[in-house]
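Structure request: Transcriptional regulator, Polaribacter sejongensis.
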Amino acid sequence: MFSKTCEYGLRAVLFIAQESAHGHKVSMSKVSEEINSPQAFTAKILQQLKRNNIVTSVKGPYGGFTITEEKMETKLSEIVSVLDGDTIYKGCGLGLKQCDANSPCPLHYKFVDIRENLKNMLESTSITSLLNDMNLEGFILKR
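Returned structure:
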């Protein structure tokens, strides 16, 4: 449903948030390793997240990426918007260029409900709430 960029971005944010919650900064290479993403691709994603003030970075030997306590309340919808724009809410379920209420694909009306539910979930879920869920369930990000 999400682009690869967005999938890796969400995983990167969660990993950085996990580490930030314990007072740690993480290097780009460590993020790349933990989310199983190519380093150059990870670097571009992290740059985009930094440019949009979702993550912060400190240069130097004791540097790395972190997420501030304030930014832990960022909703997933903001991250998705930064990385994928709003196409997830508007695109055709079959990927057709011409699909709308006037010219619907066979999935159009079923997909309207799915997109609305997804939008509601992304707009109501913060980084903090996901971290709490991950801690309760013993979820390990790296698979």
